[in-house]
């Protein structure tokens, strides 16, 4: 007998970089409770990926992104939710507003890539930040399923 396949949900995040630093939020809810990651979340019914990315950035940080471009797509397994999140990571470098933690972000901050390993940051966040900091504009994410 075969096992049921896990449910797959669409999710988005925004890797916002300014002045050599990336904006990270400390997750206030599962998945990845307490971990630092790019602002993001689930795509709601009827939303485009870009609309969802903009909404999540605004809800979690109070910031409005300028131009967004898709950096990569990765699958994140959430043991607590029992599903896989198909995460569409967008890049942005222009924004407006004042960064304040909101919605399910417990805190936020701007971090250089070399500061991130000292944080309780998700492995996928660190990998994407390293790619972008190295100048890779479109990088296929490592194949396989990452832990959320």
Question: What this model shows, in words?
Answer:
- The chain is α+β, with helices and mostly antiparallel strands and 148 residues long.
- It has one domain: Nucleoside Triphosphate Pyrophosphohydrolase (Alpha-Beta Complex), CATH 3.90.79.10.
- Helix content is 16%, strand content 39%.
- It contains two helices and ten strands, in the order E-E-E-E-H-E-E-E-E-E-H-E.
- The protein has helices at residues 49-61, 123-133; strands at 7-18, 21-27, 36-37, 40-42, 64-65, 69-78, 83-92, 95-96, 105-111, 145-147.
- Strands 1, 2, 3, 4, 6, 7, 9 and 10 form an eight-stranded mixed sheet that branches. Strands 5-8 form a two-stranded antiparallel sheet.
Core attributes:
148 residues, eight-stranded mixed beta sheet, alpha+beta, two-stranded antiparallel ribbon, 2 helices, Nucleoside Triphosphate Pyrophosphohydrolase
* CATH homology superfamily name: Nucleoside Triphosphate Pyrophosphohydrolase
Total domain count = 1
Number of helices: 2
Strand content: 35-45%
Poorly predicted parts: none
Shape: globular
Q: What kind of oligomer do you see?
A: single chain
Cα Rg: 14 Å
- Strand-pairing-aware structural class: alpha+beta
What is the averaged pLDDT score? 89
Class in CATH?
A: Alpha Beta
Tell me which CATH architecture applies here. Alpha-Beta Complex
How far is the N terminus from the C terminus?
28 Å
CATH topology: Nucleoside Triphosphate Pyrophosphohydrolase
E-strand count: 10
Q: Major sheet: size, sense and barrel closure?
A: 8 strands, mixed
